[in-house]
From TrEMBL:
Keyword Ubl conjugation: no
Keyword Hydrolase assigned: yes
Top-level division of the source organism's lineage: Bacteria
GO molecular function: hydrolase activity
Name listed for the protein in its UniProt record: Alpha/beta hydrolase
SUPFAM superfamilies with a match to the protein in the record: alpha/beta-Hydrolases (SSF53474)
Amino acid sequence: MSRTHRRSLSRSLSVLALLALTAGAVTACSDSDSTAKDSPSSSAGSSTSPGTARAGEAKLHLVDNDGHRLAFYVTQGKGPTIVLDAGGGEDSSQWHDLIPKIQEATGATVVTYDRAGMGKSDVVPGAWSVESAVSDLKAGLDELGVTENVTLVSHSQAGEVATYFAKENPKMLSGVVLVDASLPPLYTDEEITRLAAAAQPQVDAAKKDPDKPQNRQLISTAESYVPMHKAYHKVSWPNSVPATVIVSEKTPFDGSPEDVQRWKDAARTFAADGPNRTLVTAANSSHDIPKDRPDLILKEIETRVTTQR
C-alpha cells in the first residue's frame, strides 16, 4: 500500500474515531501477520507465566477469552506494570520503539497486546464492541496476574477502552496516560452525525476489500458507531483514577478547523471535569504522537510511575 493511500485511510479511520494508521506507520495493511512479526515479542514463544521472561525480553502469552484468543506481550520488570494500548487499526507493534526506553527509565514491567482482529489475536465477527474490548484487556491482565498498580497508556480509540476499563476497574489503576485519545465530551449528537456522514464514503470503499484488517475494523466500528458513541458521551471517568491527557497540536482532524477545535475542546473539558487530571499539549505533533513525540509520552509515563511510588 502506498503512503498516499495510507494517509487517506488514516483520515477515514480518524473520522470514525478509530484514529489509526497515522502517517508514517510501517505496517503493510494487507498482511496482519507482518505487523505481529514487527512486535518486540515476535521471537518469543507462548508462555503461561509472566515471571518466566527475563528483564528486557518480551514474552508472548496467548490468552483465551469468550471463545477467541488474544496475544499479550510481557517485558518483565519490577514494581508497577505499564500497559500500552494501541490506537484503532494498530497492533502492539505501535509501541515497539518506546518499550525499551520505558524499561530503561522506569524498570517496570511493560505489557502490550493485540486487540481482537489485529496482530496475532483472533478476529471477532460482527460490530465492534467496546465492552468486549474491555473484557479482553481484563482477561489478559488477570491471566498474567496483573491486578493492581497499573499505569494504562492509551492512544486514540484505546481511550474509549480506557474509559470503560477505568469505570469498571478503578482499583487496578494507579494512573492513566491518554494519548490524543477519543474522549466522551466530543460525542454530542451533532458531532456524531457529522462524523458518521463524513466517514460513509470511506466505509463504502472499505467494504470492497473487507478482509484487510484495517478495513475490517473500520467496517465493524461503523456498524455500532452511532449507538456506541451516544452511550459513550454519557460515561464518567472515576475521580479516584488520575489521568494525564495529552492532546496533539494538529489532532486527527488536521485540515478541518471546526473538528480540530472540537477535539481540543473535548480534551480540555475532560481534563477540567474532575480532580487529578492534567492537560498536556504535544507541540508540533500530528495525531500520531507515539511517532512524533515519543519523548513526551515517556516523560508523562515516568511522572505517573514516580507519583505512584
